[in-house]
Amino acid sequence: MSEAANYNLPTGIVGLKGPVEKPAPGTLPLRGDLAHIALADHFLAAHYVIPHERHIGDADVVLKIAMRDDADDGATLAAGSKIELLDQAGDWFWVTVGPEGPSGYLRLGALAPDQ
User: Fold this and answer.
1) Quick check: 97 pLDDT over 80?
2) How many CA atoms lie within 13 A of 46 on its CB side?
3) Superkingdom of this entry's organism (predicted)?
4) What is the pLDDT of residue 3?
5) What percentage of the chain exceeds 70 in pLDDT?
6) CB 95 within 8 A of CB 85
7) Residues near 42 by beta carbon (within 8 Å), at least 6 away in sequence
8) What mean pLDDT value characterizes the chain?
9) Where are the domains of the chain?
10) Closest Cα to residue 3, out of 49, 47, 44?
11) Residue 37, by phi and psi: left (phi above 0), alpha (psi -120 to 50) or beta?
């Protein structure tokens, strides 16, 4: 997998500065256990990830809000769109368009072959 765009990594001490409103599912690439590295200055997560660039395959894909086929639908991504891969569990991938989202889950078959 190729590395995604170079993001500004946090410098100094990253810490809580007060309450933060939790974003709606399917928006920012943020879960309790994992978040996009570009969000480290603003949101607390157990781990941060530098994403890997991938592309959607030959067909549009609807992101799922959870790793289930019957989960609510999120954003629709056009065929060939560049995405950032954040996590994998079985044949499910957690992806985002960028640090501002949208984010969601899709199955391995929705991705273009890794180059």
Assistant:
1) yes
2) 4
3) Bacteria
4) 52
5) 82
6) yes
7) 20
8) 89
9) 2-9+24-110
10) 49
11) alpha
Structure tokens at 74: 């999120």
pLDDT tens for 34-67 read 999 999 888 888 999 999 999 999 999 999 999 9
> Which residue type, as a one-letter code, is found at position 94?
W
The pLDDT assigned to 44 comes to 86
Strand 61-64 to strand 52-55: parallel, antiparallel, or no bridges (unpaired)?
Answer: unpaired
Q: CA 111, CA 61: separation in Å to the nearest integer?
A: 9
CB 94 within 8 A of CB 33: no
DSSP string, the chain: -EE--------S-----S--PPPPTTSSSB-SSEEEGGGTTT---SEEE--EEEEB-SS-EEEESSSSTTSPEEEEE-TT-EEEEEEEETTEEEEESSTT--EEEEEGGGBPPP-
Q: 30's torsion region: left (phi>0), alpha (psi -120 to 50) or beta?
A: beta
